[in-house]
Structure formats: C-alpha cells, structure tokens
Write a structure and sequence with these properties.
The chain has 6 helices and 14 strands. The protein has one domain: Jelly Rolls, CATH 2.60.120.620. The protein is an alpha+beta fold. The longest helix is centred in the first third of the chain and has 17 residues. The protein is globular. Bound molecules: fe (ii) ion. The site of fe (ii) ion has 4 residues, from loops.
C-alpha cells in the first residue's frame, strides 16, 4: 500500500489517537486484527446498504474538542440563498409533468462553516490531515489511496443545520462521504435514506417520486449519535436531513477525500455553497 501523500500539517505533537476511542478503533496499526475486523464489517455494510456506521468513533475528549472548535467558528457559517433544488441539483424540465422528480423542487436551507476558518493548528484540521485516517478510510472503501481534497474552502467543513433548516432529498455527485456528527438536534434533523434506489443505468423515477411524496416504505432513518463516524455511498441512495425542529443547531463535520491529488471544487459550486473563492478557483480548475 502507498503512503498517503499531500499532507500539509507537520506538527509533531499532535496524535490523532487521542481523539478516537482507540481501544475500540485502533486504526493507526495496519496489522491489528481488530482494525481488519472493523474494515471487513464496514465493507459488508456498504455492500448491503451503502451506509456503514462506527459508533462512538470519536473519544469523549475528541468529540468535545472538535465540537468546541466548531462552536467557536459558528458565527462565520454561510447560508446561501436561492436554494430550491431538485434531487439532482439540475434545472427543471418543462417538457416533463410537474410530478416528475426532475420537477419537484425542495429547499436546502442549511449552511456551512468552511475549512478556511480552521487554522492548521486546530485539532479538527490536524485530525483531517493525520496520515492514519485516510489510510484507514481507503482500506474500508477498497481504494488504493485517498488524498486530502485540495479545495481550501470546502475540504473539511461543518454542516450547520440550524433550527428550521433542512437538507432536502438528493443524490450526491461524489461516490462516498465521510462524516461525524458533532451535535444532534434536540428534535428533528434526522438522516434518512433510500438505499440503492437508482443505478448507473436506471434512474427509477417512479420509486424516487414515491420517496419524494412520502409514500415509500424503503426509506430508512439512521440513529446517529455525536461521535459516530458514517461512511455513505450517496450517488445511488436518495437521502436527506429532515428539518431541525429543535431550538439549537445540529452540527456535522464532513471530511472529503479524493482518489486523485489536487482536486478542487468548481468555481460556481464553491461560490454558491460557501460564498467565496480561493486562488485555486481559476476557470477550468474545477473537477468535482
Ligand atoms: Fe448528500
């Protein structure tokens, strides 16, 4: 296996093991039997359901310190406007009926704390750049190697689902997502998904419409707890975060990795979702 490349943090005092429940998740020891057992379990769950959960992955210390770093930066969260979108993030098609999934528009009202708000010395940033983490994730996802997503605005972000906001039903464009819940909503804010509802060859619009209309029995609700690590294959699973009906934020950290180095987001997408750009967002630079 190749050593993870493109890491930017060189601090030597940081040890990601301190942020994990390391007795249960010895991810930094490639030969550890328990590590291999965890990897096999993740693979089985991803193959069956497109979703795998490592409950209590973060230690109490790790969860507390990353949550605190997120809360310190909460005032910087960006909530973009004009976010009525269909499940495909595409334009509606007037040649199709209003009831067609392509024409069912929904609200995405959640916001983000962007990665440029986290200095390299923060625990969240150092954990994201900690070599054993992407090596472990790559093994779980059956990838030769994973790279840090090179987008300086959005490679490690906090999804902020404030009271009254939601992330509408959608399919992801990326193959997999790595998230850790930092704080639950006191009410609502549930992650729900309809696994494998479409394939590369079949959009299965009829069942997608049933899910969007609340008439499908194939929707699952995940019981996520703060500190859990979630692998999710969202390209073929319709999914959403339901409206936060509580009185405080739901906070989730999203760590993005890529199979190729030097991948950044498209100028239009980064500007729309996060409200600003970095020097790397030159025309033609976007590949994700
Ligand atoms: Fe998604």
């Amino acid at each position: 296996m190749t050593i993870i490349a493109d890491l930017k943090t060189t601090a030597t005092s940081f040890d990601g093991k301190n942020l994990i429940d390391y007795d249960r998740y010895p991810i930094a020891q490639p030969g550890h039997a328990l590590r291999q057992k965890i990897i096999e379990k993740v693979k089985v769950n991803l193959a069956a359901d497109g979703c795998a959960l490592l409950d209590g992955f973060l230690s109490e210390f790790g969860l507390g310190i990353i949550l605190n770093e997120a809360l310190e930066r909460r005032s910087t969260a960006y909530f973009s406007n004009n976010n009525r979108t269909n499940a495909y993030f595409s334009a509606p098609d007037p040649s199709l009926p209003n009831t067609h999934p392509v024409n069912i528009m929904m609200d995405r009202t959640n916001g983000f704390i962007t990665s440029d708000q986290f200095e390299p010395t923060t625990n969240a940033c150092q954990f994201y750049h900690w070599h054993p983490l992407p090596r472990f994730l790559a093994d779980c996802l059956d990838k030769d190697q994973l790279y840090i997503y090179a987008d300086p605005i959005s490679n490690m972000i906090i999804n902020v689902c404030s009271p009254g906001t939601q992330f509408n039903c959608h399919f992801d464009t990326n193959e997999f997502t790595i998230t850790m819940l930092l704080k639950s909503a006191s009410s609502g804010g549930y992650f729900e998904y309809a696994p494998a509802i479409r394939t590369a060859d079949d959009e299965n619009y009829q069942e997608v419409a049933e899910v969007l209309g609340g008439k499908s029995d194939r929707v699952k609700r995940l019981q996520l707890k703060p500190g859990d690590l979630q692998f999710f294959l969202g390209r073929y699973a319709l999914h959403q975060v339901t409206k936060n009906t509580g009185d405080d934020d739901r906070l989730l950290i999203i760590m993005s990795f890529t199979e190729q180095p030097d991948v950044v987001g498209s100028k239009q997408r980064v500007k729309h979702l996060y409200g600003r750009l970095a020097k790397v967002h030159q025309p033609g630079a976007g590949t994700q």
